[in-house]
Amino acid sequence: MDKIPVIEVENLTARFGDDTIFAGVSFQVFKGEILVILGGSGCGKTTLLKHLIGLYRPPTGRILINGVDVNSRSAKKLRKLRMDFGVLFQSGALFGSMTLAENVALPLQEYTDLSPAAIGSVVKMKLGLVSLAGYENHLPEEISGGMQKRAGLARAMALDPTVLFFDEPSAGLDPITSVELDNLIKAINAGMGTTMVIVTHELQSIFNIAHRVVMLDKSAKGIIAMGDPKDLKEHSPDLRVTSFFNRQPLEAKEVSA
Fold it and tell me: How do the residues of the chain divide into helix, strand and coil, expressed in percent and rounded to 5?
């Protein structure tokens, strides 16, 4: 993995009204890395993700993706930036009235001048990449939840982005389907070198796919740990961190200590 920062988060604050979710958050995501954002409920994981993809504008701090400020006011820069990353939302976010092929084709129609025939070829390739060849004409309601997630991933990859964002990709999936999706994510990362940022609290997925983690904490209103999850599980000096990774309530650890 190259130590080239693809994403740079600098002194970021998230606030809703008078309520500060987190403050002073800074980290980098390197080229080809799978970085997982984790933490307990209410710590701001999804809020951070929504800042990273430009859905929320921070009161202070900035975010750079491939050197472009996510909150840039330049329409040209924002258009290029949106072609550089794809997002797989928790629900898959497919349009129910459109076939899988039509869903995957949408970014290509919006951001490229490819002919309909060329778009059709790309759509088939992307669906094949996620093992959905032959399902082009199916509606989302006609396939399983795991297949919907894979179709959403195919759409996220339609423009060959350098960065993929995932919001709770394993949510709602059975354990076997969840592992299959994890393996697909790892295969895409290894085969294509795509940088990935994943929000999840699923420990099995975290240990399976993460190169590095950033851990947020609700009471600290910021980052309390960064690094290899396996190393943090065994060696972090912070009881909040080892408690999370060992599925042990913090109160129980404090009593046993």
Answer: 40, 25, 35
Helix (H, G, I), strand (E, B) or coil at 49: helix
Task: State how far the Cα of 101 lies from the Cα of 126, in Å rounded to an integer.
Answer: 10
Residue 231 parent element (H or E): helix 229-235
116 assigned to some structural domain: no
Distance, CA of 167 to CA of 153 (rounded, Å): 11
As for how many domains the chain has, the answer is 1
Could you list the residue range(s) of the whole structural domain that residue 43 is in?
5-93+162-256
Q: Which amino acid is at 108?
A: L
| Domain at 50, CATH number | 3.40.50.300
Q: Which of 90-104, 118-132, 228-242 has the lowest mean pLDDT?
A: 90-104
Q: Tell me the per-residue pLDDT of 2-13, one tens digit each, with 9 for 90 and over.
A: 688 999 999 999
- Report, as an integer, the average pLDDT of 234-243: 95
> Does the residue 123 lie in any domain?
no
Return d(Cα 50, Cα 12) in angstroms, integer.
Answer: 12
Report d(CA 105, CA 159) in Å as an integer.
10
Q: What is the DSSP string of 201-224?
A: --HHHHHHH-SEEEEEETTTTEEE
165, 86 Cβ separation under 8 angstroms: yes
**Domain for residue 217, yes or no?**
yes
